[in-house]
Design goal:
Length: 124
């Protein structure tokens, strides 16, 4: 089992940047594919990005391509989400998640472990 704790959320103006971090503890971090999802008020949780165990492969939602970058540091047991050129529609609670599968899945049912979430608010 792995425990996940997100940080780095906050309030930012449109066009600004934030970097989210997700620190993992417990089992070997490099054994997990890691993902980021987000949930806006009144909406279902949606996929944002995912990264392979070794960090040599990524997948992004179309809505964030070119603006958001996922990365990981297995030595620090941490996955990051660099978000640039933020838009008001990026406002949501952001969750990191860990999957025991090697495939880069974009649906949340394939991720067994979840953090508590961190709020990102983008003002216009």
């Amino acid at each position: 089992q792995v425990q996940l704790v997100e940080s780095g959320g906050g309030l930012v103006q449109a066009g600004g940047s934030l970097r989210l971090s997700c620190a993992a503890s417990g089992r070997t971090f490099s054994n997990y594919v890691m993902g980021w999802f987000r949930q806006a008020p009144g909406k279902e949780r949606k996929f944002v990005a995912t990264i392979k165990r070794s960090g040599d492969g990524t997948l992004y939602a179309d809505s964030v391509k070119g603006r958001i970058t996922i990365s990981r540091d297995n030595a620090k047991n941490t996955v990051y989400l660099q978000m640039d050129n933020l838009k008001p529609e990026d406002t949501a609670v952001y969750y990191c998640a860990a999957s025991t599968y090697s495939t880069l899945y974009t649906t949340d049912r394939w991720y067994a472990y979840w953090g508590q979430g961190t709020q990102v608010t983008v003002s216009s």
